[in-house]
Amino acid sequence: MVKVIIEADDFGMSEAINLGIIKSFRDGITTSTLLMPNLDAAVHAVALSKDYPELFIGQHTNFLLGKPCADPRKIPSLVDENGHFHRSRYYRNNPELKFVYEDVRTETLAQMERFKELIGHYPAHIDCHSIGDEIVDQAFFDIAREYGIHTTLKYSGDKKWPDLKGYHRVTNLLEAGALPYIHEGVSVANFLDDDFGLLDLTADDIVEMHFDVGFLDQFVLDNSSYTLLRCRELATICDPRVRDWFESHSIERISFGDLKQ
């Protein structure tokens, strides 16, 4: 049976996003979410999650929005003169820039400590929010091995990373909203027409699918280029036809927690 992780990004970005992610788990097919522990709304996100202990929460390590968890003086490559993270346009306008390994490691560990303060334990899974490179992947891989946790490596092209000891390998990664055939947000038709190719996979495949679901508030409008499409993806994830499609094709929905052997 093909197994699919349905993951909702950006938990903790804003209260509206948090409410949408909870709805996508309660009423839809979401199995996992990833928390941005450095942001103010992370506290609200964790409070909401108390009523849903089965929702897997990992860490969406964020180098682009707000203030870092580490001392800004210890991560100079990641912050501006005010001690805030460089925004995504900074990296897009300077494509030659590379992340600095020690700064990425320092901030990732600091966010893991903040995650532990909020949740009560270190994250069992980490990934990177929006923009990274092969240096970020290397830092995450090293931290994952050191802490015995799972990570998703997104930025190394065709490089084959060694398996993480004690975890099943994810065979396919789909950043749903970034796929070339998604123009107006993920729709119900994308599932019903099997645009993601899930029916072509083998019983041994494990797919990690990322979605950006949520409601909107002023923080999202001011700080994200992905706005109205979040509402469409939320409606899609909560549409009963999508759940029925998974069930009718015997595709099992799992969480990141199920990857541990």
UniProtKB/TrEMBL annotation:
Its cofactor is Mg(2+). It comes from the Bacteria. SUPFAM superfamilies: Glycoside hydrolase/deacetylase (SSF88713). Keywords: Carbohydrate metabolism, Hydrolase, Magnesium, Metal-binding. One of its GO terms (biological process) is carbohydrate metabolic process. It holds the Pfam family YdjC. The keyword Hydrolase applies. One of its GO terms (molecular function) is metal ion binding. PANTHER family: CARBOHYDRATE DEACETYLASE (PTHR31609:SF1), YDJC DEACETYLASE FAMILY MEMBER (PTHR31609). This is ChbG/HpnK family deacetylase. It comes from Listeria grayi FSL F6-1183.
